[in-house]
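[Automated response] Your request has been received and processed.

Submitted sequence:
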Amino acid sequence: MRDIITLACTECKNKNYTTTKNKKTVTEKLELKKFCKHCRKHTLHKETK
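Generated structure:
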C-alpha cells in the first residue's frame, strides 16, 4: 500500500527527491527539509503528484 511520491523544492520548484509513504496512515502532504542542489542550500520540500 506504499506509494512512490516526489518531493519538490518550494523555492525553485524543481523535483529533486523521490520517496514512499503509506497513504492509509499518512493522509496529509509530506514536508521535509532537504538539500536542493539547484538553490545550493537546505530548503523545505513538499510532496507533489
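Summary generated for your ticket: The mean pLDDT is 95. The longest strand covers residues 2-9.
If you did not submit this request, please reply to this message.
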